[in-house]
Amino acid sequence: MKNQEVAGIFAQMADILAIQGExxxxxxxxxxxxxxxxxxxxxxxxxxxxxxxxxxxxxGKTLAAKIDELMRTGRLxxxxxxxxxxPAGVVEMLQIPDVGPKRAALFWKExxxxxxxxxxxxxxxxxxxxxxxxxAKSEEKVLAGIEALRRRTGRTPLGVAWPLAQAMLDALRQxxxxxxxxxxxxxxxxxxxxxxxxxxxxxxxxEPVMACFRALPQVAxxxxxxxxxxxxxxxxxxxxxxxxxxxxxxxxxxxxxxxxQAHNIHLRALALDRGLSLSEYALKRExxxxxLCATEEEVYTALGLPLIPPELxxxxxxxxxxxxxRLPDLIELKDLKGxxxxxxxxxxxxHSLLEMAQAARxxxxxxxxxxxxxxxxxxxxxxxxxxxxxxxxxIEEVNRKxxxxxxxxxxxxxxxxxxxxxxxxxxxLAELDLVVAAVHSGLRQGREQVTAxxxxxxxxxxxxxxxxxxxxxxxxxxxxxxDMEAIFRAAAETGTALExxxxxxxxxxxxxHVRRAIELGVKLAxxxxxxxxxxxxxLPFGVATARxxxxxxxxxxxxxxxxxxxxxxxxxx
Length: 573
Ligand SMILES: [Zn+2]
Ligand SMILES: [Zn+2]
Prior knowledge:
The chain is an alpha/beta fold. Helix content is 44%, strand content 13%.
C-alpha cells in the first residue's frame, strides 16, 4: 500500500469523525497522521517493515497498529465501521468550499440529503435557508461552492502527478533497450494541474516496455493496450498514456506530445512559411524527404529557432521572443541559495530550528529565514514579542553549531489583521533580519476591503515579503478577490517582494501573475513554507512556476547571497 492511499484513508476517517461531531483531538490526530504519511519522503511500507512506524511524527501505538493492519490485510476494520455510519456522499460534501463537517451533518440529518446533486437541488429550491444558522446568502455560497468544485475536478495537482510520473519512468528506464524516458504534455510544461498523464519512451522494441508498464504496482486497470500506446488507470483514478517511439524520431515526438496545442499550431504555421511540414510523426521538406530529429533542439533549429524551454510553450509570445533572440534566461533550481519562509516547533512546524537548518543545508541551500507564525493566528503557539526574543537566542546558538556552513536568519510570518495592521509592534519587527507578512483569515472579504488590507501590509516599511499573496489552495479554496494590478504596482513602488509559495497546493503567485509582476518590476521570493524536514523538497515546483512566469534568477531575491539579501532588507527600512 502506498503512502497516498494510507494517508487518504486516515483523512477520510478524520472527515467522518468530524461529521459525527467527535472529539477535536481525535480528528486532528488522524489529520496530522495523514499529512505526515503523505509527505514522508520514503515508502510507508518500508518504514513498516523496518518496525519504525512510531518514528513518524504523530504516529503512536494506536495508529501504528492501524497501519500494520492495513499493510498486512489491505483493509482496516475501524475504517470500514466508520464508512458504514455516514453515507459517502455526505463525506464528499466536505470537498465543497464553505461546507464544513457541521453543515454537512446538518444537511444530512435535517433534510436527509446524501449526495452533492441532492444538495444542489435543495439549494435551488430554497430549502437550505430554513435550516438553523443558514440564510439566503449562505445558501447561495453553497451553490457557488458546488460550481467551483465542478470546475476543478478531473485535474490532478502537479505535486501528485510529478512524483507518480517519476516513479513510473524510473521503472521503465530499467527495461533493457530503453534509451530515453520522459514525461510529456502539461506535466512536462509543469502546469499547476494536469489532466491525463503522458509518458514517452524511446526504444527499438516496444513490447517489453509495454509489458513492464502494464505490470507496474500503480496500475489498477489496463484501459487500452496496443503496439505503440498503452493506457492505464491508477488506483487514484488517474489515466496514464505511455507511447513507445523510435529513437531516431524522439525529438519530433517529444516536441509534439509536450504541446501545448496552441504552441504547436503556431510552430506548424512557422514551418509552412519555411516550406516545411511538421506533424506528430515527422518534420518534412516540400519534396517529401524527412528531417529526422533525435532531439527537440533539432526540431527548433530546423525552424530557425533556439530551443524553447517546455515551461514557456503556451503560445504566450515565446515564439515571437525566440525569433527575436529575446527568450528570457530562465531561473533554475540551482540558482536558489536560500529559502525565506519555513516553520519550526516554535509554532506549527514539526521539527526544531537545528533540524530544519540541517535539512535546508542538505538541500544545497546556504541560508534560510525562519518564519514562525505570530500569535493572533489560531495555530498552536504563535509567537509573542517575548517568545520571538527567546527564539533569537536559539537561532544564534544554531548558527554557532553549524559553524559557518549555513546561516539561519531571524524572521516571522506575521499576521495581517482584518484592518490591515500587523500582529506585532514595529519595534519587534525592526529587530528581525526580514519580515514576511501574510493574510490567513478573512480571505472572503470583498474586493476593495481585502485589497486595501494587502496594500497596507505592502506599504508597511517593516514588511519585506508578502507570503502566498492570494491565499488560494488548489482544488480546495479560491484565492482572495484581490486587485492584483494594484498589488503589483504597490509592490514595485515600495520594493516589497511577493512570494511564489512552492507548496504544490499553493503555487501562489501563479504563473500568469508572476509574469505580470515581473513586467511591472516586482521582486519575487521562491519559498518552501516547509513545516517539516521534508518540506524543502517542494522548491522545484516553485522554480517551475517562476519559469512559467518567465522569471530569471535576477528577479528572485533568494538567488542572491545572504549578504546581498540583508543589505537589500536594511536598505528598505
Ligand atoms: Zn502562511
Ligand atoms: Zn508559512
